[in-house]
């Protein structure tokens, strides 16, 4: 299933010079990971606490920067400092915490039933857990779509901007969009479990 994640190699190639400069400056992969997670949590808490719609306009740029930092920390770890168990755990937990912090507050603002937003985020996090769990049975970390981390970033960025601009009729069709997103999130869990089992059986 096609996913925005498939663009990652080209995205990484564009960011590799930045990763090299940061590594040579002594910036660790863990510091980059922690910075991305802390900034995500700060924005999510601000949205939840204030419910200021103008903050939603920050989502597209912020999520693009967050994806860049996530790519850079991986390159710094793999290509310069060397990966570590602590870094791997920090990366996975930081990503999941960031997703929860950024997307759950939208349940308070988007013009749809809050449970729909919560359900999409919850099932998406289960999908990430399924991708990680594949490693416990001898498979690789699974990133199968159709609603991976990058796809969710695109989806929620678009929804955040539309909500901030109060686009007419947005609330009318938003529940259907979230329903489709929930189905895609479930499909993602199934895909990751299935492909993990197939890979482990080889």
From TrEMBL:
The chain crosses the membrane at residues 54-72, 112-133, 153-170. It comes from the Bacteria. Its EC number is 2.7.8.-. One of its GO terms (molecular function) is transferase activity. Keywords: Membrane, Transferase, Transmembrane, Transmembrane helix. Pfam families: CDP-OH_P_transf. This is CDP-alcohol phosphatidyltransferase family protein. It comes from Nocardia carnea.
